[in-house]
Amino acid sequence: MEDSKTLASGPSPRLIAALGFAILLSACSTSPMGRNQLAFYSDDDLAQMGEQSFSQYEQKLPTVGGAQATYVQCVANSITAAIPASAGISDWEVKVFKDDSANAFALPGGYIGVNTGLLDVATNQDQLAAVIGHEVGHVLAHHANERVSTQAATQSGLAILQSVAGLQGASGEQIMGLLGAGAQYGVILPFSRKQESEADLVGLDLMADAGFDPSSSIQLWQNMSASSQGQQPAWMSTHPSNAERMAALNDRLSEAEPRYEQAKANGKRPNCKA
After folding, report:
1. With 229 labelled, which of 12, 22, 68, 236 sits at a CA distance of 20 to 30 A?
2. Which of 51, 58, 93, 135 does the annotation list as catalytic?
3. Tens digits of per-residue pLDDT, 46-75?
4. Which domain holds residue 114?
5. Average pLDDT for residues 86-114, to the nearest whole number?
6. 135 catalytic, yes or no?
């Protein structure tokens, strides 16, 4: 039995750690590649976050119609048609945004955005499919849930540590600042790199299942590498290096190419014109 002094001082660090560990275990899930993930939020929560984010993006940038929108919609429709029904998203909203950056995104709830600048780098339907497949791969692998859950767990963990260790005042704030940086580069960013690598492979399989040539993903990243203005060191980046991505994709082609051949045999032959 704990004495009155212990009770007055609040829960012990060991008890706090045990409770935190129990919460983390209860929130674990598994990614498509068999990796353990944190998942604190429901699909409905994530869909609402996705809708809000997409609305904010629409307010920030003008959308583009015409031939570019038709082309992107054609590729996106082929990709999303290959998504298993178990994913729980039947309708996807696709928009092209006028922005020179070579970027695209997909959000929980069924939202896809492509910047016009990407169409200068992804020069054919197969390369564009590699990008859209990658972005949809993030959604299928529940990476948004994992990312916000990891951030929430990290912030909560630092707050508990500050309380338990009594890190107050100027010196305490400095130590917590260093711990925060350690959490950023030691927890959040490595998870993000894993997510990016995982989305590459999920997207590769998805584009192959949709009838797009998976080998075009290598050319896409060659184009990306040629157009980039330099990269951060890998340990500070949320993305793997272009060379790392191409090597991993090349290793996966032995599995993706038979899926591509099977898709073609089943009549999946997209013909999207830029």
Report:
1. 68
2. 135
3. 888 889 999 999 999 999 999 999 999 999
4. 28-265
5. 93
6. yes
